[in-house]
Design a protein that fits this description.
Blueprint (H helix, E strand, L loop, with lengths): L7 E10 L5 H11 L3 E7 L2 E8 L1 H13 L6 E10 L7 E3 L20 H7 L43 H8 L20 E5 L4 E4 H13 L4 E4 L4 E6 L3 H11 L8 E2 L3 H5 L2 E2 L2 H7 L6 E6 L15 E5 L4 H10 L3 E5 L11 H8 L5 E5 L11 E5 L2 E6 L9 E12 L9 E10 L9 H17 L6 E5 L5 H8 L3 E5 L1 H12 L6 E11 L5 E10 L2 E8 L2 E2 L5 H4 L1 H13 L10 H4 L3 H13 L5 E2 L2 H11 L11 H11 L10 E2 L5 E4 L1 H10 L5 H23 L3 E5 L6 H13 L4 E2 L11 H8 L7
Keywords: Hydrolase, Ligase, Metal-binding, Zinc, Zinc-finger
Organism: Methylomarinum roseum
GO molecular function, one term: zinc ion binding
Length: 758
Amino acid sequence: MSALIERKLLHIHIQGFVQGTGFRPFVFRLACNHAQYGWVANCSAGVEIAIEGEPERQQHFIDDLKNQLPPYAQIKSLQIDEGPPAHFQSFQIKTSTVNDTSSLFVLPDIAPCPSCLSEIENPNSRYYRYPFTSCCFCGPRYSIMASQPYDRQRTSLAHFPLCPQCQTEYRAPNNRRFHAQTIACPSCGPQLALLSSDGQRLADASQALEATIKQLQAGKIVAIKAVGGFQLLVDASNSAAIHRLRERKKRPKKPLALLTQDLGSAEQLGFIDASERQALCSPSTPIVLLRRRGDAPVADLVAPDNSLLGVMLPASPLHHLLCRAFNAPLVATSGNRQNETICIDDQQALDKLGDIADCFLTHNRPILRPLDDSIVRLLGDKITVLRRARGYTPLPITISRPLPDALATGSYFKNTVAIARDRHIIVSQHHGDLNAAETQQQFADSIADLRQFYRFEPTLICHDLHPDYSSSQFARRQTQAKLPLQHHHAHILACMAEHDLAPPVLGFAWDGAGLGSDHGIWGGEVLTVTHQGFHRYAHLRRFPLMGGDQAAKEPKRLALGLLHAMLGDDAFLRTDLAPLSAFTESQLSLLKQILNKRINCPQTSSMGRLFDAVASLLDLCQENEFEGQAAMRLEQAASNSTVTTSYPFELSAHKPIEIDWRPMMRQIIRELGEQNPEDIAARFHNTLADIAVAIAQTAGQIKLVLSGGCFQNALLIDGTIKKLKKAGFQTYTHEKIPPNDGGLAVGQAYATAWLRPA
């Protein structure tokens, strides 16, 4: 070692994903390898390092720091300042410092790594069958963090002091658990307990796991305390058990997700391509929507009349142990009552789920914030997030433009909220629809949590244009300046944000509904997004929503409204058509008056409702038993066809361009009874892709963005992208942020890059 006089002291300030990744142990080992003295510490903003040693070796240290990062660690910014020698005699990991700023780079919860899985399966390991095994590279993160920086005393493990063996591992530089904040073992860590539905203790620790397996094998419904909240589990091959679960949860037809032990068992359930395989096996372990195998070893009741299965792999050691012991797929659905939030603590679960679950597998490690399972799907050639929660939240969206400190309150349906700071947007976990007091409370709690966790105080509040959304009402109650954003404008901005796009773009926002700037009900929109806002470039020809919101639940109403818009009262003579035969004569008589007098028949340009109407005409769905059922059946029918032809349509000469669906609908009606529904459904999808190309061609060479809930349809987005590409257009679609209303908060926040309150 050179003399002290030749030493140089460098202070290194790092921001990025450097907490909860094993970064400090990595720095410690790096410093020892390069003969550097000093310290490393977490701070509220990231990590701080002081190294003192030979300048040449310091440069090697910095090179390795950048190029040999641990798994999941990412450096977003690195600042180096030189200081006077401090004559350090060793290198150490110092106690974290807390200051007024907070890191925007917090890791989500991470599925167990291969090393931890190996230990819980090894009878000679002290972690054998221990369901809370973790290390520097895996385990709970965001779900257990109370505040920053990331240290055990600021997590829900604070009340579990380490035993001597864990202390030894925690202090050993070459150990995988060196300074692992979630370290725990059977001697000192959290423990399982199996409770009856009325809260009586049935079994503890490993006996609780064994008793749970017996309950599942007996066809019982088991509520388990998972990573981000309770889940309801049942044997996926037991039709009677699934029927009971559906009956008790009041969920008659909506598909249920499956939990299975490994990739091999997942391949027995669905067809898996390389992208889907990567998503299944990723540290996020989301539910992946797979094309169902005809011989999948699960009951039809898991996903009735559905060609897709939602499949996930174990997200925690507890899931892994359950799956290995049960050795067959399990239904795993959110532990909540209808229209309520996921339960996160034992008493809440017993109160809310006591009449659904037969028993409760719980533990004494608190969950600090609810995180549902995330959902992804292969759309086009990209895995796209449809529900963003566990495993993805709170990863930021990073852009190249500075943003003011803004809070975005999102939408009414599939709500998320977001905060903007510097060049980053942090989006909350999925909250669900804000139609119940519980979800509205979670929405408010989530905002309070974000403000506390990130030490964040907004100067600007962004919200949807709709005055009746509870998210908009919350925004208006705040004292800060307000920025209202039109719904479909925000959809397009959300996709722009994740691709860091600047205006101008031409955005296709096709969804169910959103309030337009003319106070109409929009949903089949093409907008030109500019630095000043947006212009409505094109939209679907309007048709009546007979009964308002009720029409979204009854596709037959939409089809009848569509027919009346084309044929007038002659529509009621077409009793040969499926939508009319779905009504009684007295109902049709009343509906005729309603349409002619325009009683509660608002006009809409909604693409989502057009999908519903076509599904009704093809007699695929007359009443939605869950959101999106009609559109799903239409996509499924179209997927079974190989036709490549399309229907005629017209675009108006005036601006905004009106997309006239009547030529298409006339042809569809002519083909009913002559062509099979699958071919008609396929031609409908093909026509929408043709419409997108035709509109894009009128706009010239401009960046194109596809957003909105309709673009969760794999057939639609795949066909549209291919046709646009063939026509020479560059098209951007969602990946990290949902194309549905779950992405609106991101779009609202991104708007602040250019827009300010009037």
